[in-house]
């Protein structure tokens, strides 16, 4: 069953790459990097959601919920607010200026050396994220199929590279939208399933430590620091910005960021609740293992489905960072096509 599910899933992703390439009519850098600036609202929204709900937020926020409870939810506010501002104010101006990446913006205002430095800095950030996402997928594969970590890495990287390289932004946006639906539905279902496993809402609320139900558990200063830190992270989040630049119009970009941000801010409570519930069921695990521990509650088939969800979040992150890195290095040498 595991082999069938993952083979079908990966084949679907790999078929999307060449099919998406047919939508690149001009065969230019703009076609490849920004899908010819012609992506409809549902794909832009899906890409935004998949970017925000990635492997780091899924596993990391569950760990924060395990450690701090629902008060960790404040880590999402600043970033979502900045993201919506980007969609309404910043991205329309970048679109009118015909810019494609953040390094291009720095180049226009400060010169070529600043562009190169910014490309290097973005690449350093993306290399870490890429390595984390690839390793996360490989660990899931190693667990499910009992294969070596190196072989698992080869499989996951080949699949992700194939559809990203062959289909560019069109392939990334289409696969992101599919994976956004998988992640949203699958992770949200974990809440009622785990509550039922415990024995109901009353049993859960009586068993959870009072600190984990307290929105002010970590104090005002820590909550405020989380809001500011997440806000600063999003100001130059090129993966998100390129989603808006690929939209078919300014209106589509604005509406996509509003819709994607609204859905994401509602969803962000999910991993913190999962982590909080994990405290009751798995009181002695490492916080980083909270989400993966919860996936073991629902039998072999349920665990397999949640493994697919984790892989989907990792692939979404990995394909986005690959495209961002390729975009930056490509545009060092050529002008926007």
CATH architecture verdict: Up-down Bundle
Helix content: over 70%
When the domains are counted, the total is 1
Distance between the termini: 45 Å
Compute the gyration radius: what is it?
A: 20 Å
The CATH superfamily label reads Sodium/glucose cotransporter
Strand content: under 5%
Q: What is the chain-wise order of helices and strands?
A: HHHHHHHHHHHHHHHH
Low-confidence runs of at least 5 consecutive residues = none
Give the rounded overall mean pLDDT: 85
Principal-axis shape: globular
Architecture overview:
The chain is an all-alpha fold and 337 residues long. It has one domain (32-333): Sodium/glucose cotransporter (Up-down Bundle). It has 16 helices and no strands. It has helices at residues 2-21, 29-34, 41-52, 55-68, 77-96, 102-110, 112-145, 149-198, 201-207, 210-213, 220-234, 238-245, 250-267, 269-281, 290-294, 299-333. Helix 4 crosses helix 14 (269-281) and helix 8 (149-198) crosses helix 16 (299-333). The longest helix is centred in the middle third of the chain and has 50 residues, at 149-198. The protein is globular, with a radius of gyration of 20 Å. The mean pLDDT is 85.
């Amino acid at each position: 069953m595991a082999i069938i599910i993952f083979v079908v899933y990966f084949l679907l992703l790999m078929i999307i790459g060449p099919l998406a390439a047919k939508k690149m009519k001009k065969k230019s850098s703009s076609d490849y990097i920004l899908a010819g600036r012609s992506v409809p609202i549902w794909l832009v929204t899906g890409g935004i959601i998949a970017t925000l709900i990635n492997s780091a937020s899924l596993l990391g926020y569950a760990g924060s919920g395990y450690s701090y409870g629902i008060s960790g939810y404040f880590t999402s506010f600043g970033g979502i607010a900045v993201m919506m501002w980007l969609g309404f104010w910043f991205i329309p101006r970048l679109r009118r200026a015909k810019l494609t990446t953040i390094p291009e913006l720095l180049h226009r205002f400060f010169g070529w050396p600043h562009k190169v430095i910014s490309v290097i800095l973005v690449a350093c950030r993306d290399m870490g994220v890429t390595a984390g996402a690839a390793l996360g997928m490989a660990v899931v594969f190693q667990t499910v199929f009992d294969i070596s970590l190196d072989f698992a890495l080869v499989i996951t990287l080949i699949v992700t590279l194939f559809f990203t390289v062959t289909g560019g932004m069109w392939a990334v946006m289409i696969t992101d939208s599919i994976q956004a639906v998988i992640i949203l539905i699958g992770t949200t279902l974990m809440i009622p399933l785990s509550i039922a496993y415990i024995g109901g809402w009353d049993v859960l609320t009586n068993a959870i430590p009072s600190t984990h139900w307290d929105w002010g558990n970590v104090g005002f200063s820590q909550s405020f620091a989380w809001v500011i830190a997440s806000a600063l992270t999003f100001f130059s989040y090129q993966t998100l910005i390129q989603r808006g630049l690929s939209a078919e119009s300014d209106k589509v970009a604005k509406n996509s960021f509003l819709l994607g941000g609204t859905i994401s801010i509602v969803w962000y409570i999910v991993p913190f609740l999962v982590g909080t519930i994990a405290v009751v069921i798995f009181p002695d695990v490492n916080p980083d293992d909270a989400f993966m521990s919860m996936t073991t509650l629902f039998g072999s088939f349920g665990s397999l489905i949640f493994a697919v969800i984790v892989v989907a979040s990792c692939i979404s992150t990995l394909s986005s960072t690959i495209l961002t890195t390729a975009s930056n290095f490509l545009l060092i040498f050529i002008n926007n096509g």
